[in-house]
Design goal:
two-stranded antiparallel sheet, single chain, Macro_dom-like, 334 residues, O-acetyl-ADP-ribose deacetylase, Macro_dom, alpha/beta, 11% strand
Length: 334
């Protein structure tokens, strides 16, 4: 997917360029800056000495040296002073300038840390929103693989209110589903009978899954493939192909495969990404999943989180992926 949040060490990212959250001297420091300099080796410092420093919001580029990337883009984020001194604008400028430099050097992939969230003190939740907004705007016009790299769970935050609301939504529906499924299974099963050997038989029927599709339903699903349904929905929504796959956070090459192959079998996150891009209702989303051979279930926390956002009418795939990442679930997209 064009934008992906990953938990990793940025010095190990095998991409065209990584971004270094540097200080104005560009001569190394602590945190991400120090880690990148140590991994790149002494030649990086020598190269940085020729750059003449860097102003907040600006960026400069060097080779990657011993790192697994071709380049390192060094940018200086703002120090947090309560948000009244243009910190947001400066932080946004960091991301825009880095993306422009990456494009200028024909990079196909770039990995960012959450800039300014270390010793510079920028609140992580707000910094994340700035990063997502700028990257999203860039990807609407450009094709590039962008990673937001966080080192550990404590480095990544969504709002406490949203996390709590989703948690409650999951708890209410996840537990209820377990109870309802058990009740249906028991009620649909024949009464166990004791055989001549003294043992109960047909106990296994207690665990038969209800809701198996009928032959008629299965045949109906075969009439239109997932690919055909997707293309029809795009036309019905008055969208272009590019508008749809970019809104779905789907790579253009993957979309081309789906368009060119009526029998293409996508992953569940890919299906749901398109459902979100098309702003389908919950029932329409379930229909699209069935076309690809999947079901929507309250026994899956991943599914419940998607349902939460659909029921709220929030079809922002980047916000949804932030929540999925916070709950350690798979992200939507390719």
């Amino acid at each position: 997917m064009p934008l992906q949040i990953v938990r990793n060490d940025i010095t190990k990212m095998a991409v065209d360029t990584i971004v270094n959250a540097a200080n104005p001297s560009l001569l190394g420091g602590g945190g991400v800056d120090g880690a990148i300099h140590r991994a790149a080796g002494p030649r990086l410092l020598q190269a940085c000495k020729t750059l003449g420093g860097c102003h907040p919001g600006d960026a400069k580029i060097t080779r990657g040296y011993n790192l697994p990337c071709r380049y390192v883009i060094h940018t200086v984020g703002p120090r947090w002073k309560g948000g009244r001194y243009g910190e947001r604008q400066t932080l946004a400028c960091c991301y825009r300038t880095c993306l422009a430099l990456a494009k200028q050097h024909q990079c196909q992939s770039i990995a960012f840390p959450l800039i300014s969230t270390g010793v510079y003190g920028y609140p992580r939740e707000q910094a994340l929103q700035v990063a997502i907004q700028v990257i999203r705007e860039f990807l609407l016009e450009q094709d590039m693989m962008v990673y937001l790299v966080v080192f550990d769970r404590d480095s990544y935050q969504i709002s406490e209110a949203l996390f709590s609301d989703i948690s409650q939504y999951i708890d209410d529906r996840y537990v209820q589903e377990k109870s309802d499924v058990l009740s249906r299974r028991v009620s649909l099963a024949p009464t166990p009978k004791c055989g001549d050997d003294g043992y109960f038989h047909d106990i296994a029927h207690l665990w038969l899954e209800p809701d198996e599709p009928t032959l008629e339903q299965a045949l109906a699903q075969m009439e239109e493939s997932f690919s055909q349904m997707l293309l029809r929905k795009i036309d019905e929504k008055g969208m272009t192909d590019a508008q749809c796959y970019k809104k779905a956070n789907i790579d253009r090459k993957l979309f081309s495969k789906i368009r060119g192959n009526a029998g293409y079998k996508p992953s569940k996150p890919t299906v749901l990404a398109f459902a979100i891009a098309l702003e389908l209702s919950l029932e329409e989303t379930k229909d699209m999943l069935q076309k690809a051979g999947f079901a929507f279930s309250h026994s899956s926390k991943f599914d419940i989180i998607i349902e939460y956002f659909i029921q709220k009418g929030n079809y922002d795939i980047f916000e949804i992926n932030q929540a999925l990442f916070a709950f350690e679930e798979s992200l939507l997209g390719s």
